[in-house]
């Protein structure tokens, strides 16, 4: 269905805006309703289940296009990587400083970028490299460190680096499927992925229950929690559908840094405007650096320099 629209930049903008929404909803849930790993796992399970429903709608609209063994097996790997990515991100945030964790996660875009360059022959320009570096600086400055008591440790670094690897691998798995002969099975690919991710997360919740870790939040009895879960889950499903399409429409050196940087900037603006978070000097500089980074990635700086005869 997205292919028929043939508007990749509009879809990219939509993905960035929805990503900002997911980050804000996830932030609300983690701050207000998460007290242990079971709460986080339940959030992941709800997100996967709701995303499954969203993708199923796309399958019904587009029509079932079949499932090859390639798509089926790659989807299972995608599900496992996505679960590990969520788990390691959560552990890294619990154990270490938020700013450093966020920068390491954002730096993971280099993995699909290198994959695109080495295996798909995609080009990387100096301006894109500068843009990627500026994105990391922007992410670091956008995260408020005032009152941060958590310090870096080897255990934290292990989780952060594993999250870096898993986060980057997600982009690679998206590129692999979109570049294959089975790219037309993209909806089915996501459908299988979310099914197995929900299955894996449900199994993890059962293990936690046996160990005595139970959920503290009761979403079905708390309308606000239920609405946050619903919004985050539906948005996560939409993002995956859009980003899988975009991974076949743009080179990795452009797409993944823009998704990372654009999502961070949009979430920051949303936090200021909607959630009335404090607009500190540090965050203001981070926002300005992020805008500059996107100008490099979109080639705007290059155009300006050409106009100036540089």
What does this structure look like?
The protein has 310 residues and is mainly α. It has one domain (2-307). It contains 13 helices and no strands. The chain has helices at residues 2-5, 8-32, 37-62, 69-95, 98-106, 110-119, 126-142, 154-178, 186-210, 223-249, 252-273, 281-297, 300-307. The longest helix is centred in the N-terminal third of the chain and has 27 residues, at 69-95. It is globular, with a radius of gyration of 19 Å. It starts with a helix and ends with a helix. The mean pLDDT is 88.
The coarse silhouette is globular
What letter string, H or E per element, gives the SSE order?
HHHHHHHHHHHHH
Largest sheet: none
CA distance, first residue to last residue: 43 Å
How many whole angstroms does the radius of gyration measure? Answer: 19 Å
Average the pLDDT over all residues and give the rounded result. 88
What is the domain tally? Answer: 1
Query: Which class do the helix and strand fractions yield?
Result: mainly alpha
The amount of beta strand, in percent, is under 5%
Give the proportion of residues in helices: over 70%
- Poorly predicted segments: none
- Compute the number of strand runs: 0
Tally of DSSP helical segments: 13
